[in-house]
Amino acid sequence: MAYTQRLAEANLVLPVSSVGDSYDNALAETINGLYEAEVIWRQRSWPSASAVEMATLRWVDWYKNQRLFGPIGYIPPADAGGNYYADLETLDMAA
Questions:
Q1: How many structural domains comprise the chain?
Q2: Helices (H) and strands (E) in the chain — how many of each?
Q3: One digit per residue, pLDDT tens: the chain, 95 residues?
Q4: What is the DSSP letter of 88?
Q5: Apex 16 CA angle, 59 and 21, nearest 5
Q6: Which residues pair with 69 in a beta bridge?
Q7: Which of these, 80, 58, 61, lies nearest to 69 by C-alpha position?
Q8: 33, 63: one domain
Q9: How far apart, in whole angstroms, are the C-alpha atoms of residue 15 and residue 12?
Q10: Mind spelling out the 3-state secondary structure of 17-44?
Q11: DSSP code of 1?
């Protein structure tokens, strides 16, 4: 609420997502900021667009499959997703 209210106070157009708030854009901007800081700006210049593409693919793979994320138990997000769906299957079998 405070974020959306602050945007309105600043007379900024509120970005509307599928759920009707501006938090989705804030999350996307956070990820974009991480990407720029961890990939793009670490190297002074890039030899080609394909070099940027390869670095991006490596970063996305690391971000999803190798990065240890504290709020979910210091495991990679992909593992957390796999655990979630495995738990759903276990619950379905129990029911």
A1: 2
A2: 4, 0
A3: 455 666 677 777 655 555 555 566 787 888 999 999 999 999 989 999 999 999 999 999 999 999 999 999 999 999 999 999 999 988 777 76
A4: H
A5: 85
A6: 75
A7: 80
A8: no
A9: 9
A10: CCCCCCHHHHHHHHHHHHHHHHHHCCCC
A11: -
Question: Could you list the residue range(s) of the whole structural domain that residue 12 is in?
Answer: 1-42
Structure tokens at 80: 């957390």
Reading the block at residue 24, the tokens are 């989705």
| Global confidence as pTM | 0.64
How far, in whole angstroms, is CA 76 from its chain's centroid?
13
- Give the distance from CA 43 to its chain's centroid: 22
Same domain, 55 and 38: no
